What we know:
It is a single chain. The protein is 82% helix and 0% strand. By secondary structure, the protein is mainly α.
Amino acid sequence: MCSAIPIILGVMSAGLSIVQQQQAAAAENAQIAAANAQAEQNYQFQRLQADAQRTHEQQQEWLREDRIMQNNFFADQAFHSDIAQYNLRYMQEQQAAGWEKRKKSIEALEKKGQIIAAGRTGNSVTNLIADVKRQEAYFDFATGLNMAFTGKQIQEKKKGARTKWATAKASVQPYLKRTILDPIAPIKRPKNRGPGWAGYAAAALGGAQTGFAIYGSNPDLFS
């Protein structure tokens, strides 16, 4: 009977060791599962954030494209309107100059007719008619010079209109989307498989050593 006591003590010690190892493995696996679940939750949340940011960037690009189209439309309309006004002004100036030149020509003819009708002869008539012609020529020259200045002014205003048009179109630039990367998937920890055969063998050996050690140190307790 006494020889079986160390074996019983060894089995009890080994069983207790195995139970403790299993409990420790279960507790560790619970922690691992909780950590893996938290990591997965964080990963999915980061993916949702990345998708939301990509959607926001796409919407910003579309909004900017729409704004560019509107801005270009109004810039083109304003430019064409300015050019049309400058062309119209030049045409009006040309028409006014033409009417004024025609008026002066009629007046010159009337003066020539009056000189001739007055019955004058000789150099006085020639000088008077030459004077009328000089006045007419001076008016033509002044009118042409004024139209040249007007044309130059309108050309400069057209250049200014083109600069204004280009500046207005360049005032809204395309939207540069940010590159949103997907989060890195977490590396999940594997679960503890428990003591296994090596753990059982170690528990059995440890139990046997513990049983014989207890029995050897206190033989009187088991006699």
